[in-house]
Write a structure and sequence with these properties.
about 375 residues; alpha+beta; 7-stranded mixed β-sheet
Length: about 375
Amino acid sequence: MKENDYKLTILNDIEFDNFAKNHECANFFQSIYMKKLLEKEGKEVYLLGLKNNGNILCATLLSKTSKFLSFDTYEALKGYLIDYNNISLIKIFTKEIIKFIKKKRGYRLIIDPYIPLIERDINGNIVPFKRDNTKVKKELLNIGFREIDNAQVKWTFVLDTNKDYDTLYKNMKANTRNIINKVNNKYKLIVEELSYDNLNIFKDITSKTCLRKHFKDRNLSYYQNIYKTFKDKVKVLISKLDIKLYLDELLKEKNSLINNLNSTNNISKKNNLNKNIEIINKKINELNNLLKNKHYLILSGAMFILYGNEIVYLFSGSNEEYMKYNGQYKLQEYIIKYACENNYKRYNFYGIDKNFMKDGVYEFKKGFNGYVEELI
């Protein structure tokens, strides 16, 4: 097929959506929802496709992201949507896009392929003789791209959810399973999905978390825009402790300890039981004081994007004073179950630090099993 048989076209929303959501590289950055979100932020966005005889062969969402003097940078966030093994197609598509952006005084094109460089295991070690896209990277460099450190996430942690939840649960680390058991059977934590009108609750959690970790938080309108734009493709969840429910559990535990205390004459055992009763009494007093003003403790919150074959864990936070209740574990259990029950193939825990072996966030995510993914 000759190069002039291809035609770069500005796609309409329906054309792009039908192509993008079913593509092997489908991701929410390359979606009609992201187009709308970027436009709300005042960005210039184009949906470009390479056609042959009316058929779309590849496509990308391209946005103008920065300016240098009177020249612009255009970026395909987590794009292209293309067969990365078809180097000739990549060359043609890139050449046509360069022509397109030059007409608009563009001077730089950034792509951010949503494919792993090389397959890795849970510890980040390379898995020999498995998926390897180093050749693709080499070809992209040969075309004229150069590698840069970009703001987009490069290292992620992923769990394949094309199994039933019970199987995934059995493969989690023992400590993670124990915490999940505790949040369900002892704390009896509840998950609530927030509506648009209650996003201020989520924002309050992220604000406190970012302040604690010295991160910059988004403003409320940013979260609201995501919610309005992604609609049924976004979930904002919080985990809560029902104080009365947990008090009931503590009272049952206390009564059991008292019964054991009354039925033993062993001094050492009595001392241990008395210490445990004292600890429970402190918890009961603390919770009774809290119960005077509130029925629930809001523990953690998270925003998830549901698109294509995956769910992405995008933003989250926890109230530091209630970290002992492990609210994030309840949210993870909930969304992993949801992914399994609704036929999502992947749950993407999303970003981990490139020095992930020293990263506490990675250790938390690792407990649920899965594998490290390094994107090109």
